[in-house]
Design brief:
This protein is of the alpha/beta class. Helices cover about 30% and strands about 25% of the residues. Bound molecules: ligand LLP.
């Protein structure tokens, strides 16, 4: 199986004709393959992979991932509701909160969902609110990794509780009679070399000996995929070998012989399964640059504008000759650029383009900026059938029912 979803020109054109443009298309087989690779990282019986749903909360994708034996994390009541709709039970959801209101904590607690708090400030509020005795906290292990400073969370960042504040965790827990049942961490998003991840895991393992009632630890996500076709893949075999060894050493020494050890990938499971199809609406020359104008603005895919992220681009055309092109969206900002100076075949108005690796943080970060409805999502099953898994938003829904 190919690493990424592949579409023939005719299929891409048919999908856009059937479901409209722009359009997110996902390949179920690739999601299942990635889930199995993550499950194979460790054979420890308490090894528990958690899907970080913020990467893509489509309910049909959540169901596929659940059927592969994953649990989920949630960042908000909205994610919790999507996960419940996909069939996840309360014990399968971990609410990894970050600066949330007590009402949001209560929302999770009322449903029997474990909450991990992100600061001493929030732990105190949790305790004062009389929420369930068992809780968890997020450790900031002081080591970070990631594709952009905006997504590195270990070390100097707003996230987690640093090691020197752990006495504070114990004090607040004792004051309110709380039991620290879990510790999670996440050092950042997208590594293709796992050295930092493994070093940070070590910090978490050591910290876990300071809390006697632990039921789980969660090492976090961040597993990267190559966005450039020329980049190498994350070596999951090597990571598995090293991580399994560390998990085995840790669990052999830890007093709770049933402690769950979780990992929490988001992007890795869904990124490569997705392609974003769009339509070329203009081709123009301006000040020496050739602009290809499409309907894929940063309201539809935000990553290139927000992080300067690279996505490989396909132009579905029979034209073979390439030239330097700048691909833009239809939003009224000059920064609305998907890719600059790419060697691609010149398309004609009406041609379809495909943005690869769009399955993670694509739809989930889409907005209605410029009052444009969010696109539809379609799933390709292993037998090649296409199925609508989220309708395109309507213009009427944009007005919030006010007119
Ligand atoms: N766990 C926690 C607590 C997280 O905050 C995240 C991602 C993950 C797990 C999963 O990370 P992943 O395996 O997907 O790297 N919008 C950015 C990525 C932001 C990630 C935020 N947190 C992007 O498009 O690259």
């Amino acid at each position: 199986m190919a690493d990424r979803i592949t579409l023939e020109q005719e299929q891409a054109e048919e999908l856009v004709k059937k479901y409209g443009s722009p359009l997110y298309v996902y390949d179920e087989g690739i999601i299942r393959t990635r889930c199995r690779e993550v499950r194979a990282l460790s054979s420890y019986p308490g090894f528990t992979p958690n899907y970080s749903a913020k990467a893509n909360t489509n309910i049909e994708l959540l169901k596929i991932i659940k059927s592969e034996g994953f649990r989920v994390d949630a960042m908000s009541p909205g994610e919790i509701l999507a996960e419940e709709a996909a069939g996840f039970g309360p014990e399968e959801i971990l609410f990894i909160s970050n600066s949330v209101s007590v009402e949001e904590m209560q929302f999770a607690a009322d449903r029997g969902i474990m909450i991990s708090v992100d600061s001493l400030s929030q732990l105190g509020q949790y305790g004062r609110a009389g929420l369930p005795k068992k809780t968890a906290f997020r450790l900031n292990p002081g080591i970070g990794a990631g594709h952009s400073a905006k997504v590195i969370t270990g070390g100097r960042s707003k996230f987690g509780i640093e090691k020197k504040q752990l006495d504070g965790v114990q004090e607040i827990a004792a004051r309110y009679g709380l039991v620290i049942a879990g510790i999670n961490q996440h050092i950042g998003s997208l590594f293709l070399n796992s050295d930092e991840y493994l070093a940070a895991a070590e910090v978490l393992f050591e910290t876990a000996f300071e809390f006697s009632a632990l039921e789980f630890i969660d090492i976090g996500g961040g597993f990267g995929v190559p966005y450039r076709g020329t980049e190498g893949r994350l070596d999951m075999g090597a990571l598995s070998q090293k991580l399994s060894q560390k998990i085995d050493d840790f669990t052999a020494r830890h007093p709770n012989k049933n402690i769950r050890v979780m990992v929490e990938p988001g992007r890795y499971l869904v990124a490569e399964s997705g392609i974003l199809l769009g339509t070329v609406h203009s081709v123009k020359e301006n000040y020496g640059e050739t602009y290809v104008g499409t309907d894929i603005g940063f309201n539809v895919l935000m990553r290139p504008v927000l992080y300067d992220s690279w996505h490989d681009i396909l132009i579905f055309t029979t034209n073979q000759k390439t030239q330097k092109l700048t691909i833009t969206g239809n939003i009224c900002e000059s920064g609305d650029i998907l890719a600059r100076d790419r060697d691609l075949p010149l398309p004609a108005v009406g041609d379809i383009i495909g943005i690869e690796n769009a399955g993670a943080y694509g739809y989930s970060m889409a907005s209605t900026y410029n009052s444009r409805p969010r696109p539809a999502e379609v799933l390709l099953s292993p037998d090649g059938q296409d199925r609508l898994i989220r309708r395109r938003e309507s213009l009427a829904s944009l007005s919030g029912g006010m007119c």
